[in-house]
Structures are given as structure tokens and as C-alpha cells.
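can u pls check wat happens w/ FE(4)-NI(1)-S(5) CLUSTER with Oxygen
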Amino acid sequence: MAEERKEAKTGSANPASEKMHEWGVEHKIDTCFERAQKMKPCPIGHAGACCKHCHMGPCRLVGKNAEEEITGVCGASLATVSARNLLRMCAAGTSAHSDHARGMVETLLAVANGEAKDFKITDVRKLYRVAGILNIEFEGRAVLDVARDVANTLLEDFGRQHGGQLNYTKRAPKKTQERWKKWGIAPRGIDREVVETMHRTAIGVDHDPDHLLLQGLRTSLADGWGGCMISTDITDILFGTPSPQKGRMSLGIFKEDEVNFIVHGHEPLFAEMMVEVSSDPEMLAYAKSKGAKGINLGGMCCTANEVLMRHGIASAGGFTNQELGIMSGLVDAISVDVQCIMPAIVEVSKKFHTKVITTNPKAKIPGAMHIEFDEHRAKEIAKEVMKVAIDNFPNRKTMGGRVSEEFPAVVGFSHEYIEYMQGGRWRASFRPLNDAIMAGRVRGVVGLAGCDNPRVPSTGIHRFLATELIKKDVLIVSTGCGSAACGTSGYLTPEMALENAGPGLREVCEAIGIPPILHLGSCVDNSRILTIASAMAEEGGLSDEIGGMPAVGIAPEWMSEKAIAIGMYFAASGVPVIFGGESPVSASKEVTRIMTEVWFERFRGALHFEPDPEKILALALDYIDKARAALKLRKYEPGKFATEKILMDMAARRELEKAAKPHIGIY
Ligand code: BF8
């Protein structure tokens, strides 16, 4: 298998992960890397040419001139079939983020009603900000009353039936909103858009590919400006808006002499409680009674991002690291809730002593222990789960692979903090960033996001793009497993700017003391990028809408339907997006044309699929440079930039702290 793997160039591109993977290969433990080799994707489904929306099929629309000449039994064309397939991926992705968001809002409501005693409103300022956006009066009112109104208002966004559109769509620049209105894609209720997408993609309903794809965009906007943005806001209100934290990342975070507990998944409610419980004196005493020196909490995937950016809890990495972490033999228990959890972790855990515990009522895995989380008894349940890990500590017997690498990381750049770091508390703004782009110090901005993927040298394309982009003065904002790929390679540090960034970007990073790759959080926190782009448009000097900014989104190793929803909401909002790997609709030239040319014309965004990392880089830079030219900004030349504007340094920012009036804007 090892030889085969070399030939196929799979495995992880991260040295620590690959070391652990090699250990697994030697000990005959299969992981996603081996399964990816064994499982050849069906080429028809892979290209979006298979329709199984009724039982006359599945129909396979293949052959010479399939687009013109072949149809399904019902007569559906290849373009219809491909568009419908993409829409269903988008609907599933939207459902995942939005169901997560619903859980967050329900918890906020429970807190407001005094029913979730272990949680509280941590960021009242953010609550007021959100209340302001929703036109809810907050001055002079009890905090919990404001929270109740915020929760109830946002809950309406899920099920709105008549008229109107999602509350948060008004946070987009006016011009962006006008485009949505013109093309009829302003989302109404989140659940409604998902249901309509499922309806219109059923046999015998909507057959016009362009019309279908517009509904896909409307659904994706319900994800971005609904599910994701709501989730980000409520999480900040409940657990605090992130500001830079120091953390540790990679597979070397486990400790031999402590109880190692991993929180994995997406919804941060349970994980937050585990953070609290891991330093609880009663739990620590219990761990000591079992021979452990302490409790070492770590995270995996997006849950890791959530607790890393708020508490500095170490991250073991992204999607393809989940089995590898267990292979250390040091994980006493891993809790999982929803999304991106490989059921295979149960099989790997059987080779060691690790307990896998499912905690969400929506998700069980055969062979795993199930202890259901209930926000009304949050701490009690968290303690129960932690005790499982502590009781399991003395059972460690099978020696796993050993990896010592762990990297420091500076994480937790919320959009509020990015605004703050450019002007201090009282004059927070995006002016300095816009000026740096106008002056040519910063060439443009790339959102590096999405999954890591065992079908490519995992995390490697993220690393390649991160290095090349910052070298070319492109500021990176990263989320999800894109952040994990960068962090587990040691890229999320200010030193990265000194050593690898181009001269203009380096100057900006040095002036503010930030890394050239800003960790913005989990995948739902892609909504922070929408907020930043809106603020940049509002600030002036660049584009007056999200479209037309020298900005691109890249998900080079995507695999999840959630990534499709994200890519589509960025495209609909005006951002050209490039996904790595083969297109899931490559079979249809018509669908591909609509997603690139037609969407760009209408929304100034697009969705490309490009397997070659060099070409992804070239396409991203081309979009950025063309946007600069269209905005009549000075031509980007490395090392040459206008000098009249400088970014605010720390000393200047401290001076501003002494000034007056807080700024509570719409963002
Ligand atoms: O939501 S980046 S593999 S962990 S889907 Fe999943 Fe992809 Fe990671 Fe978070 Ni996002």
C-alpha cells in the first residue's frame, strides 16, 4: 500500500500528519487516504451527468454530443440534470449551516428565558450591535429582554413565508442588494429556499438550467446572509467576539501524562462547556485520582476553530487529521456532534482505547457511545462526558504513532477586531486597508477556505497557494480547514510575514503586528468575510459594492456540499470563486458557462473549478489585477507603492484609545 500511495501521490502534504499516516500504514490501519485510493469515483456522477431523481433511472447522460443529443427517460437534458445536481448540493450545504444556526438561536432564547443556566450573554456590546441591525431597541432595556427579541426576530428568518427577505440581507451594500432584486434572488426564509430548491429539482418541475441556477443562488444567499451570519453573530454573543489569541496547532498537541479529550464537529455549544469543565477543580482532582497530571483539551475541524479563537484551545488540525489524531493512542475520548465526522473514527478507535462519544440528537454512529447534549443541563452532561475520558485514561495500552510537531499560531481575527486594529476602539474603520490596496502595498485579498481532501496531497494545495499569494502581496483571510492547513504548517504567525510576504504586505503586517494570513474562524465564519467586504465597499475608494473588489475566494481542496453553498453565496454576492479539483458539473458546458460568464455579468461573481494549483493561482491574480485596473488603481508592481498613506501602528492606536465616543456601526 505504501508503494501504491507514492505512485498515486496521496497522503498528507503536512509532514507531521504524513508521519502519523506512515505509522498507520506500517501497522495496517487504513485511513481516508487508503480508502480514497481504493474507491474510484463513478465518472458519470462525478461530472454531474447522472440523474437519480426518480426511479425510471438512474439515467446516465453520456456519449458523444451528450449535451445536445442525450436526455433522460423524461427528456431532461444534460444541462438540466447537472444544474439540478448542483442545486441539491447547495441545498444540503445550506441546511447544514442553517440547522447549526437554528440551534444557536434556540440556545440564545433559552438563555434569555432563564432555561439554560450554564450559558450567559458574554458579549453584550455585540448583542446591541445585532439588535441595532435588527431595529430592536436596546438602550435602557434589560439585556435578557433584548436577547429574547433578537432570538425571536432571527428565528423568523428560518420560516418566513410571506413577502420580505432575510433580515441580514440589508447588511450588504445597496448596489449588491439591487442586483439580487433585479435577478430575483433575494432570499426569503431559509427553510423556504431549501424546500423550494428540493421541489424545483424533483422530477418534472423546473427544467431551465439558468432558472434553476438562480434558485441555487437564492438558496446559497440564505446560507451566507442567513444561516452562516446568524451562527457567527449568536456564537459571538454567547461566547465572546474573538480577538487575537495565541494557540498551538498540529498532531503534537497531545500529552502523555494528561487526559486528552478532543472536541470535534461544528456546533460550539457542547465544546464551550467542555472548555469550562476541563479546568473545573472537581474534574482536575478526579483526573489526578486516576493518575493523570491534568486535562488536556484539544479540538478538531471547525469546533477546533471555535474554541481556538476564543480560548486558545489547541487544534489537532482539519478534516483529514481526525483518524490520524486517534492513531497517537493518546486520545482518551473524542466527542463529535455534527458535520464532517468520518464514521471511520470508530473503527480506528477500536485499535486503541479511545472512546468515541456522539453528543447530538441528530447524529449517531454505530459502535460509538451516545451521551446526548441538552443545553438545559449543559454542565452536568459535559462533566459526565469528561468523566468517561478520565475513567479511560488508565486504559491506555496500545502504543500509537508519535509526532512531536506543534506550531504556535495567532488566531481569532473577527471582523470587529480587524476593524479595531485599523483605528482603535473609537475610530475603528477599514480605511487603512482600503488605502493599502489603493496604494498597491496590498495587491488584493483572497479568502482561502474550505476542506482538506485525501484525494490530493492533503493540505498541500492550501500551503502552496498561501505561500505564493502572500509572496505576491495578497492578504489572506482564512477559515475552516483552510485555517487548519495553514496553522498546522506554522503559517499563522507574524513571522510568516517577515520571512515570506512581499514587501508591501510585509510592511502592512509589521505596522499592525499581524500575520499575513488572518484566521477568521470556522466555516460559518465565512460570513465574516461578507461583512468585511461590505465594510470595505462602504468605506469608499474601492468598489461601491462587493462585486468589483480586488478579491477572490478559493477552496482548493473542497469536498463538502457545504463548500458548494459557500462558493455559490460568494459568487452571488459578487466575488469570483475558484474551487480546486474537478467540477461536479463538468459534463455540461452550458451550466459551466452560466456559472462563470453569465453570473459574472449579472453579479460580478463566478464559480470556477480548476484542478491545477498553478492555474488557480494565475486565475486568482488575474481577477485581482483586472479588478484593480477597472477601479483605476495604480498598477501593482512588487516593491513599488504610493507612500502618502501609512497604516496605523500600535503607538498611534493607543493615542486614539484616549479619544471619545464608541463606534457602533451596522457591521
Ligand atoms: O465546515 S472546511 S472539511 S470541517 S466542510 Fe468540513 Fe470542509 Fe473542514 Fe468545517 Ni467546512
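Residues 1-8, 656-667 have pLDDT under 50 and may be disordered.
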